[in-house]
């Protein structure tokens, strides 16, 4: 199951002015980008637990983004917690990106791939949640494989 038709239309309307002549959209989806360290998660939970006397539990998670994969670029838009697509966050040319094969994560409920960008150290984790996990395989399959 992909994002709903209304969100897809909004995402296409948001990305349309940014497309280059001849550029075509191949995939639109919702994903989380980045990682949050265990240390940061633990510190946040402890501080919030102490300040609220254990009445509230807080979690920290990677940023939700809308992904637009075109034949020339990958565009990441602010996910606004699943709401209307926001501002453009990243714009990466496809020739400079490779991806690991998509793998299941968290009991098979999510699909995860890691992007390697030419000239950058490390990788960018892209995590497709349960409702868009099938898109993770399409996304990773559309990019060259990281060696």
Folded structure, characterized:
With 147 residues, the chain is of the alpha+beta class. Helices cover 23% and strands 33% of the residues. The chain contains 3 helices and 8 strands. It has helices spanning 5-15, 38-51, 133-141, and strands at 25-33, 63-70, 73-78, 88-93, 97-99, 103-105, 110-117, 124-128. Strands 1, 2, 3, 4, 5, 6, 7 and 8 form an 8-stranded antiparallel sheet that branches. β2 and β3 (73-78) form a beta hairpin. The protein is globular and about 55 Å long. The two termini are 30 Å apart.
Mean pLDDT: 89
Instruction: Report the biggest beta sheet as strand number plus sense, adding barrel if it closes.
Output: 8 strands, antiparallel
Radius of gyration: 17 Å
Helix content: 10-25%
Provide a compact summary of the structure:
This protein is an alpha+beta fold. The protein has helices spanning 5-15, 38-51, 133-141, and strands at residues 25-33, 63-70, 73-78, 88-93, 97-99, 103-105, 110-117, 124-128. The longest helix is centred in the first third of the chain and has 14 residues, at 38-51.
């Amino acid at each position: 199951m992909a994002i709903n038709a209304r969100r897809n239309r909004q995402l296409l309307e948001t990305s349309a002015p940014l497309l280059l002549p001849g550029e075509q959209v191949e995939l639109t989806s919702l994903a989380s980008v980045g990682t949050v360290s265990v240390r940061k998660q633990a510190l946040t939970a402890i501080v919030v637990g102490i300040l609220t006397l254990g009445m509230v539990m807080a979690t920290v998670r990677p940023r939700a983004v809308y992904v637009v994969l075109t034949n020339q670029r990958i565009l990441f838009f602010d996910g606004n917690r699943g709401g209307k697509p926001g501002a453009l966050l990243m714009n990466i040319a496809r020739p400079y990106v490779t991806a690991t094969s998509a793998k299941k994560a968290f009991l098979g409920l999510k699909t995860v791939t890691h992007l390697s960008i030419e000239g950058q150290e490390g990788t960018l984790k892209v995590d497709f949640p349960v409702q868009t996990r099938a898109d993770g395989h399409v996304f990773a399959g559309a990019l060259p494989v990281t060696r």
